[in-house]
Amino acid sequence: MDLGSILKDLIDSEKFAYVSLNKIFRQAAKSKIIVNSHDVNNGISFIGKEYDEEKENDFFYVNESVQEKMLAQVISLSKERLANYGNYNFYDNIQVLTPTKKGMLGTKELNNYLQEALNPAEENKPEKQYGNVTFRVGDRVMQIKNNYDIPWQKESNDKLEFGAGIFNGELGIIKTIDNYDKNIEVEFDDQKIATYAFSELDELELAYSITIHKAQRK
User: Which residue has the higher pLDDT, 178 or 84?
Assistant: First the structure.
């Protein structure tokens, strides 16, 4: 039995006091994302619902039941349509989430498809094959285990800052792949730059798509 099931059983027993957090501060109060998330939690359908005109137009529901069509929608939205709608850049503004790692719409397949759509192979673009994964300059990647020892550096107030430690869930972009020195350099979202030996690439995975579980840990 997992921790979530244990906590649910404790709450359902009504023998313990608990506090339920139901107010969200991170997104704008007028966001339809927030309105719909509350509706889902309360068992209310958002499909066909009318909204107050003052609500933000930040939620779109695409109804597809065929996996191949779902995949085509994800690629189209990520590559072009959202950029055309709101000048969104995939690397800065978009993250594809999926419930699972397996199958056509799981992270492993989605990452391959999205890598090919957003960062295809080019003659002079370095890449490194590691197991079943091809890492390529320009790829979005995620650290998937805590590494307290890996050194990093970043520019801060025109000075170089040095430290150690990259942790599970941190996202970054591959900046260089050096096949001579056998290492990959990754710049993370907080501007930390870390270098991974090819033997350490089991700590990274492609992150065009990540699981909802991983997103909750970020």
Answer: 178
- The pLDDT of residue 28 is above 90: no
Percentage helix, strand, coil for the chain under 3-state DSSP, each rounded to 5: 30, 30, 40
The residue with greater pLDDT, 28 or 11, is: 11
The closest alpha carbon to 133, from 185, 194, 205, belongs to 205
* The two three-digit tokens of residue 188, written as one number: 């993370």
Find all residues with CB under 8 Å of 166, minimum gap 6, and list them.
Answer: 143, 147, 150, 152, 188, 192, 194, 203
Burial bucket for residue 185 (CB in 10 Å: 0-12, 13-18, 19+): middle
Least-confidence region, from 76-90, 114-128, 172-186 = 76-90
Q: What percent of the chain has a predicted confidence (pLDDT) above 70?
A: 90
Residue 104 contacts residue 67 (beta carbons within 8 Å): yes
**The pTM is what?**
0.81
Owner of token pair 């370095």:
126
Residues near 30 by beta carbon (within 8 Å), at least 6 away in sequence? 54, 55, 56
Domains and CATH numbers, the chain: 1-61 (no CATH), 64-218 (2.30.30.40)
